[in-house]
Amino acid sequence: QFIDAVRRVAAGGTAMDPQVIQQLLARRSHTAQPLGRLTPRELEVLELMAQGRSNAAIAAQLVVTERAIAKHTSNIFTKLGLEVSDDDNRRVLAVLAYLDHGSH
């Protein structure tokens, strides 16, 4: 394998460990589609969050309780990997993820 790698590099190619490539691809697909893990309803809630709506306004528009919206919001944060932090606002980070990857 080493000699093959040297030949590829000498010919202008690259040589990388297949495990490294696999990890990079897995990480990229995970971060490239962060919204792919959300349900259609969670995406709807996130879209309304991106429009600046409060939980109460989202609940009224979707004709559900504020508690249901709070649960959807919590699920969104979990699925996007947004942990509780004193330094970050998870709602803003979720909206930024939506704007970066999901808005049309």
Describe what you observe in this structure.
The protein has 104 residues and is an all-alpha fold. The protein has two domains: 1-32, no CATH class; 34-104, Winged helix-like DNA-binding domain superfamily/Winged helix DNA-binding domain (Arc Repressor Mutant, subunit A, Orthogonal Bundle), CATH 1.10.10. It contains six helices and no strands. Helix 4 crosses helix 5 (66-79). The longest helix has 15 residues, at 18-32. The chain is elongated and about 65 Å long. 12% of the residues are buried. Mean pLDDT is 83; it is low at 28-32.
SSE layout and pairings?
Blueprint: H1 2-10, H2 18-32, H3 40-50, H4 55-62, H5 66-79, H6 90-101
Helix pairs in contact: 3-5, 3-6, 4-5
Brief sketch in words of this structure:
The protein has helices at residues 2-10, 18-32, 40-50, 55-62, 66-79, 90-101. The protein is an all-alpha fold and 104 residues long. The protein starts with a helix and ends with a helix.
Q: Look at the structure and give the mean pLDDT.
A: 83
Oligomeric description of these chains: single chain
> What does the largest sheet look like?
none
SSE-based structural type: mainly alpha
CATH architecture of the largest domain: Orthogonal Bundle
List unreliable stretches of 5+ residues: 28-32
Strand content bin: under 5%
CATH top level assignment of the largest domain:
Mainly Alpha
Number of helices: 6
Order of helices and strands: HHHHHH
Distance between the termini: 46 Å
How many structural domains can be distinguished in the coordinates?
A: 2
CATH superfamily of the largest domain: Winged helix-like DNA-binding domain superfamily/Winged helix DNA-binding domain
Total count of strands? 0
Radius of gyration: 20 Å
User: What is the overall shape?
Assistant: elongated
